[in-house]
Design a protein that fits this description.
The protein is mainly alpha-helical and 148 residues long. It is built from nine helices and no strands. It starts with 8 loop residues before the first helix and ends with a helix.
């Protein structure tokens, strides 16, 4: 597959997403301009990472998500959550727990993440951490009381 040099970056990313879903290899250099600047093209990074996750290619999604976690604009709870999920699915439990903690730092009322992290702690035989996480975390009703 030959991609014209003048093809816009967003179309290159869409092509990459399509190729990933089709199970086709990405042409060399297709995404060089995208990967050179995660701050500017973070939304495209996320689209491509999501495509890799959709087809179970978590090891290919992880570097993209890791790049996004190092940016100011895209280091948000949703990106960290996707990062944690990839690590978890790759069996990187310690690193996944760190990313889940970052999600809770950014979104303390995200109960699904709190439950997932507690389960992960129990799998890692860190039962005290799991219990503390479930007993001491904020709840959605806490957030409602703070808003009043």
């Amino acid at each position: 597959l030959e991609v014209p040099e003048e093809m816009p970056v967003d179309l290159r990313a869409k092509l990459a997403v399509g190729l990933v879903h089709l199970g086709e290899p990405l042409p060399e250099g297709l995404l060089a301009s995208v990967f050179s600047n995660p701050d500017e093209y973070g939304d495209l990074f996320l689209d491509i990472a999501d495509a890799h996750c959709d087809v179970g290619e978590y090891s290919k999604a992880l570097p993209l998500l890791t790049s996004l976690t190092h940016t100011h604009k895209y280091s948000q709870a949703g990106v960290w959550l996707k990062h944690a999920e990839c690590l978890h699915l790759l069996g990187e439990l310690e690193a996944a727990s760190e990313s889940y903690c970052k999600v809770l730092e950014l979104a303390p009322y995200h109960t699904d993440t709190r439950l997932t992290l507690a389960t992960l702690y129990s799998q890692m035989n860190q039962l005290d951490d799991a219990l503390a996480l479930l007993e001491g975390g904020p709840t959605a009703s806490d957030g409602l009381r703070e808003a009043e």
